[in-house]
Amino acid sequence: MALFAVSHQLVSLDIDIGRRLVKGVTELSIKPKTRELSEIRLHCDRPVVRSASVNGLACEFERVGPTTRQQVLDKISRTQDTDEGELVIRFPSEFGVEESTSAGFKMAKVRIEFYLVDAKTGLVFSECDEGHATTTVHTETCMYPSVTRSWLPCVDAMHERCTWDLFYTVPACVESAGKSLPMTVVSVGELSSLVVHPRDPLRKVFRYVMSTATPACTLGFAAGPFTSACTLDSSLLAAGRSASSDAAAPPPLDEERAEKPQGSDSEKDDDDDEEDDDDDGAAAAPASTSVTVSPATVDAIGGIYAFAAGGQQAELENTCAFLPEALGFHSQEFGAYPYTSFKIVFVEGLRTPVVTCASLLLASAALLHPAAVIEAAYEARRALGLGVAQQWFGTYVAAGGWADQWLVVGLAGFTAAAFVRHSLGHNEHRFRLRRDMARLCHADVNQRALSYAGPRGGDDAAFVRLKAPVVLHMLDRRMVKGGQSLGLARMAAKVLGAAVSGDLGAAHAVTTAWFLRGCRRVSGVDVAAFGAQWIHGTGCPVFHMAYAFNRKKLAVEITVHQESTNAHATAPWAAPQVFRGPLTARIREADGTPYEHVLDIGERVRRFEVQFNTKYKRIRRSTKRFRQRQMAAADGAGAGAALFGAESAAAKRAWRVVEWGEADDESLASATFEWIRVDPDLEWACVVHFDQPAFMWAAQLQRDRDVAAQADAVAALQRLPSAAASTALMRAVMDARVFYRVRVAAALALAALATERLAWIGLHHLVSIYKARYCLPGSGSGSGSGSGACEPLDAPRLPRPNDFSSAAEYFTQRAVLAALSNIRDRRGEAPAPARRLLLAALRYNDNSANAYADGHYLAGLAAAAANAVAASTRFATAAGCAEAMAEVERLRALDLLVPSFHNVVTCAALEALVRVSLVQPRAHVFNTALFAAMADAHAYAPVRQTAVSGLLLHWGPRVPPVARLMAAWAADCEHPRLAVAVARHAVQLLMVRAMVLGRQHHSLLFMEEQGPAADEHIDTPARLVGGFEALIDDGIADSPELRTILASAAYDSAVPPESRRLLAAVHALVYQTVDESMPPPPLQPRRRLKIRLQPKSVKPPEGSPLSSDSEDMPLGALLGVSQELAPQVPKPKRKYQRKAPRPSDELVVDDDDDDDVPLMLPPIAGTRPPPLAVPDASLNSPVYSAMPTATPPPPPLSAPPIKLKLKLSKVASSAILDTITSPTASSSSPLAREILPGTPPPPPPPSAPAIPSAPATPTVPAKPAEASAGVAGGTRKLLHRVLRKLSRHPDAFPFMRPVDVVLDGCPTYYDMIKQPMDLGTVKRKLETNGYATADEFEADVRLMLANCYAFNPLGTPVHVMGESVEKAFEAEWAKCGLSASTTVESGPIESAGPKTPPVSKATPKTVRISTGKRKSFQSPATHSAPPSVEAADEFVGLPDVKRIKTTPDLGLGALDSNDPDAIIEYLDQTAPKPTLDWPSMCTRVLLRLQAQPSAIEFMAPVDPIKQGVPTYFDVIKRPIDLSTIRTKLNRRSYASADEFREDLELLFSNCYLFNTPGTYVHTQCVTLHAIFEATWTRLSQAPDLPMDDRAYERARSVLGKLKRDETCWPFLKPVDPVALGVPTYFDLVKNPMDMSTIQKKLAKKSYALVAEFVADIQLIIDDCFLFNLKDTPVHDCGRALHSLANKLLESDHWNRWLFY
After folding, report:
1. Residues 187, 242: contact at Cβ < 8 Å?
2. Which Gene3D superfamilies does the protein's record reference (predicted)?
3. 690 in helix, strand or coil?
4. How does pLDDT run across 1149-1161, given as a tens digit for each residue?
């Protein structure tokens, strides 16, 4: 691509949202760099190019695509920076590069016409929730790697920038819920114009111009009915700063900024009167915390606009209220906004919460929230704040290469964190920074360096997003050592300045080396060593520190042992290193003064001597004077005693307060300093193990004002349980001045101190806190601080009515309840007092007087209630456990009636059921039918995702029905977020099971641990590998169906890229696929399954857990399989034995390796071939390869009980439905029918069914000698074309080979089908000249389809596929010009062979199941197997795979997607013709005719006597006139416009019949007839345009200009015949009209169409010409009105309805 450069690109997209089609034209202005330029290569992944030209000369072009699986994966991840593109355009010989008068060569114009059919990557079509037509389309821009090439031919490279001219043609309006909503397109750039399409008034064209040079990967747009919109400006700045008094803002976002740190540092020693220095950590606060955003900075941005779907105006304004401050802050602190305006659109269907484009943010509609929801404000502000920062670093400033990608990501995260510090406060920023550092240390194991020169996608990208901002923060702390103004914020501003000035080049690309050099110049600090360790190195340091006080030297000796998180790493790139640099240790000495000491870290083990600064003395914490000083310090700090519970002896006893020194002998020892803090300014991302006495941690918690220090103290006290530690944590929770996140952590830590060894003191403190703070006063208790502790612990209390006006109290209350549920007694459940409080909070929740929603609060209560009893050893018998689960179910049912925000209560209830079902597998609380209903496509997205997760976690992927659903969900193109979530769930499920088998329970991959558990990450890799070995050996690798699913979905073009990457990783890991270009070898089954089935229904034995009173049955019972085979817990053994109550019902699985036959499964329904550019033969996937003819099954057996001996794999034996037909094994359970009302009753017992052997492959019948030559060459070529089209059809794979009764699970197939046929046999006959005529070929194809319809009932997947193949065959057969001899009807038809009895069709019942939207769901469709097996999936309660839209039905039939001309011709032929409102059109035609002078003779019925034509009715037998036609039109007597036209034609024919040519009436009729034809032709060809809000505004504007014109005075008011002296006016004018009447109709919105408004203006003009003669003043005014109206209506093409 170095041979040319693109300076400008024009893009025009014509979007047909209803059919998901895009016609596009793009024109690139390229500047050659060499005279020898003969071809160019562009990125063009999904678009199909129709034509290409350069300077008007046609060009040859071709597509270059991958040929192996590995190349497909490389293409997905964009692993090569030198990607040359997929589209090659070769210039013709006539083209030559011309030199320009200036330096260089002349520009060339390359024009490309292309189209997109159902684009799945990059361009997403979304449907509205209520199941109406598709209404929105948006791009999913991704800069690394870019996906713009998937919807636009372009130079898709980050370093190639150009200006853009973007045209979007969309429908003017869309129908949604019976309403017509105007379409809006929001795109990058500035809106230049909005006009009606010149040839189609039902469509409009948006034009956006991007004048700032921008790469293609930052393009994006969204089109939809965005009727909710708002403009944001600087007026919101004051409201944002004083939001604490604004009810529209959630309280957390305001209180955090105003919260005061806890404690006071004014404490003095008895012999030292020196005041304390500044508070710990406060000196590190940067100056940006006090920045005030100037309104002028916000006003300098061209405009800030927000859009969303209709009905979300309040949520939109609330969510986006902070955006002006965010944009102003970044502009003021780092650099001016790089674009002219900022736009944000909230759309459905985004895979990620925010998609960042140049000057545009596409945000998920899930981020919208009302002011009453507290929790959602945090996530929305975090996600949108990061998107705002990426406008500067990410879209405007780009990375120089893969190795520099971390820098752009880090700068965006660093500046976003600066805004968090500005808007949410210093405490929130410090707490989040500490949390991110802890996460980084746990995650940086076996990770690559930040500067890795390769693609970073998925989890790697998430790791970069975590580490890069932390590393830049540490760099900032190193730089500010020389001064606060020399930090990284100054360097970020210099980066933006360099981009503006051009120092970063035309690509605005910043590199790591350039950035580090700039940091050194700005701060004067050499950062080379820092970069080598943290940017180019891997891992994080782990410090083990110990101290000792040397009294002789008056020094503190600190010993530091250093190791790396990669100490036991297995990756070759993750080598451990020794970190070097200054580490700060802050010692708070005896006089209360903190002294900082710098430790020069550079060796693995080193001892430091820190000099003591004050006179040595001991601090006695057990003395009375010491406690008095603490009380005085607390009183001086403000209201709310820091030493809560020590006010009196009674309060101390009630709260069980234990001071340091009363119960712990160690605390009685003297100490020379208060405490030591390591790295107080958070300059290192490290793990510090520092052991100091618990009383020092307690002092640090109480007196250090830094939230990071308080959080460290809480974690340490949790690891050092004691009664005094519990008291310190209790006081932190009760102190309202403590930062709320620290209070939450302290409350959760109290649960760890609620143990029997400590006499349940943690439980006592938690219960007392909850009663004192959040419960109504009990009987006999006071209102003081001890009111919650002056009564027995188990005394009942009612909760206070909800009041969430204080954010700190709200989150603390939730934390206290969660901590109560985490306490465990000997029975594994929460103690009785905790459970009583949780149940009381659930039952008596009162939110009537609360201004905020309690959805998340109730969701937390539901999770806490289930958590309290989940691990109980008496779960099945304890009444308390049943009460808790009943309350959870009550909340779920209540959420159906009064839905919570995003149905969070329902999600929490489902998660609680899943957790209890996994912990208590014998209780059978999991309801498969409920989760299947919640997983329906009509359910709300969060509910559906939770239900899908529950189904996967409960049943696992080894169960065939769940495995099929997992594949369908992972390829669900309608819900991409669900697809990615399902793939991630599958990976996590395998990881969790592997960890269980590997005995790894504290993996840091899935949970954040503190304390001793944090060290477990070192052993995680080894245990995880061992667990995977055990998991694979346990049978996962023996699942052919799961293997087929992973092999196909990982390379399926319809699967979202992230989902494909995850599934490919699982496939490669589990099945150890080495060569990705070759399919995995076929499996060799090692199991023999002997099954004896009884025709009668199988009943569970007495005492079995499968009794009817259980809420749900195991999957094995629902399938007729033993419970031992149900995949609940992985079992190491491979032999299973079940003893049934009757000898005739047995199931034995044994090892038998003799006579093994390779097992290959048929293709999975719903999978599609890979991308168009990848040949199927090259991929060589087992799903797409032809299936060999299987060996016939055993001969039929007679007389029940049926005994089948089939060779199956171990996993296949757990799902008998796929291989064995048993009418009673699935439908006999009454409980299954009770769970699923759609389950049909069991069929009657069969009489000695037989399973015949499958016939051999159909042989080619012998042909006569004269026919041996076969069909003619031309006909054979056409037949090969038809066969090739059918074979490539996505739904043709069930017909590619003969039916195998064993592998296809249909043993009765050849009992019904006596003449089988398939496409493979047809191909073999065609190649061997087996057809003498085309009719024989057609007969075989129709025989195959007839067999499909005869065996598969209507509505089953294979039947639907047959219908699709039939449509393709009919289309191709007609296209080839071959005559059709027979007709195959859709539905069961008779085959060419002997007639078979009709197959009964299962009628699906409608089951009403509540899912939050109270929709009606149909029971899953039947399986493609015979009727006895087809209902097997229904008993599982899972939805049918075919109901999940993996490929939307576009009605394309068998159209070849690689034939551009065929596609364009099809699109042109099938394009929806503009519809006309014919009654309105007929009314307008009649009004115009009645206003013509030539119509006077035809206005009323003919009167033979009055008009002197006595013979009229003798000649005219069907008289008609205009008034009669008007009456019929008003009475709606016409069924169509044709009937109306017939009456008018009758009127004209009657006139011509009775009146001779040349007469007056005949002449008038000819004139009127010509006017009618012209009017009819014009109105019928001009489609109607709906009158939307914009059209009404335009109409009012036109009418106002007409009324203000001086020549329009005669038409302002209705004509008064008396006042004006025209008594005959209404005798002549039958339809009067004036300007005031039009104005009233506009005010009432009486116009449905624009043409109706124009027709009224036309009626005024026609009435004027009818009544007023030429050359009269009023007639001249009419002409002036006509001219002016035509001029005003011309701009919008409305003058097409105005006649001259």
Report:
1. no
2. Bromodomain-like, Neutral Protease Domain 2, tricorn interacting facor f3 domain
3. strand
4. 333 333 333 333 3
